[in-house]
């Protein structure tokens, strides 16, 4: 049986492959990366594995023969702290902190609690962080066991061919829209595209709610508001046929 929290249904077979709750801050610089590595000591009881996050820089030179690559080097942007269950992690970068939950995903309320628990540890050890933005993002994969189907049977965010082309078939598409939520000073970006998958088609549905952060705001309250925006957008897009596949 599915249940409801905040009037949004929670599915036993939710299509969420990764949920990301991010607190962004002004870049602290690569010279403080060692602090990010050291903070792992405060997380290792539940997140014992540490992996580096690499960044890359290319330096180009314009000469008589055009642009030439003269330098290509990598550097460490931060670290991932992985839980023993391999289904959740924290990322600690020079410009942001996040809690990431891989499938199976249960609900955003418990995910926000883990985000805030981690953030309190992180921000007490890494000083002088100036929070600048927040985001809640779900990467969904909707598996449709058909090679030929009508998009509008599964998604309300679908494009119909005009009259003279109505007998033709759409074989590929890419949707990208941004929706404003002025009451929260927030935006939600929605990207949707197909991917061949065995005998059917997988639809990648990326929903990313985000906003700038003001010093007088409360981080947890704003993350919860972004979660509601993200859920509102998801349930507005998927049809009843689509929901049945998740139940």
What would you note in describing this structure?
By secondary structure, this protein is an alpha+beta fold. It has one domain. Helix content is 20%, strand content 43%. The chain has four helices and eleven strands. Strands 4-5-6-7-3-8-11-10-9 form a nine-stranded antiparallel β-sheet. Strand 6 (88-93) and strand 7 (96-102) form a beta hairpin. Helix 2 packs antiparallel against helix 3. The protein is globular, with a radius of gyration of 21 Å.
Secondary-structure map:
Layout: E1 3-5, E2 8-10, E3 16-25, H1 33-38, E4 49-63, E5 66-82, E6 88-93, E7 96-102, H2 108-125, E8 131-144, E9 175-181, E10 186-197, E11 200-212, H3 219-237, H4 240-246
Antiparallel strand pairs: 1-2, 3-7, 3-8, 4-5, 5-6, 6-7, 8-11, 9-10, 10-11
Can you write the helix and strand succession as a string? EEEHEEEEHEEEEHH
- Detail the poorly predicted runs: 1-5
The helix/strand class is: alpha+beta
Q: Could you tell me the strand content as a percent range?
A: 35-45%
Percentage of residues assigned to helices: 10-25%
Shape: globular
User: For the report, how would you describe the main beta sheet?
Assistant: 9 strands, antiparallel
Radius of gyration: 21 Å
First-residue to last-residue Cα separation: 8 Å
Mean pLDDT: 90
Total domains, how many?
Answer: 1
**Largest beta sheet: what is the strand line-up?**
4-5-6-7-3-8-11-10-9
| Number of helical regions | 4
| Number of E strands | 11
């Amino acid at each position: 049986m599915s249940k409801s929290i905040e009037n949004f249904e929670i599915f036993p077979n939710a299509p969420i492959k990764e949920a990301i709750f991010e607190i962004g801050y002004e870049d602290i610089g690569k010279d403080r990366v060692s602090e990010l590595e050291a903070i792992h000591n405060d997380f290792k009881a539940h997140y014992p594995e540490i992996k580096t996050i690499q960044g890359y820089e290319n330096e180009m030179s314009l000469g008589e023969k055009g642009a030439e690559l003269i330098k290509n080097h990598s550097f460490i942007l931060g670290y991932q702290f992985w839980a023993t269950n391999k289904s959740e992690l924290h990322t600690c970068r020079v410009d942001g902190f996040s809690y990431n939950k891989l499938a199976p995903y249960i609900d955003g309320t418990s995910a926000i609690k883990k985000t805030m628990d981690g953030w309190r540890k992180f921000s007490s050890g890494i000083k002088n962080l100036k929070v600048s933005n927040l985001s809640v993002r779900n990467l969904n994969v909707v598996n449709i066991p058909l090679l030929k189907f009508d998009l509008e049977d599964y998604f309300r965010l679908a494009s119909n061919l005009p009259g003279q082309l109505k007998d033709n078939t759409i074989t590929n598409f890419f949707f990208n829209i941004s929706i404003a939520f002025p009451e929260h000073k927030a935006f939600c970006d929605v990207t949707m595209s197909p991917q061949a998958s065995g005998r059917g088609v997988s639809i990648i549905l990326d929903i990313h709610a985000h906003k700038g952060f003001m010093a007088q705001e409360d981080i947890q309250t704003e993350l919860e508001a972004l979660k509601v925006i993200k859920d509102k957008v998801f349930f507005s897009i998927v049809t009843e046929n689509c929901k049945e596949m998740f139940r």
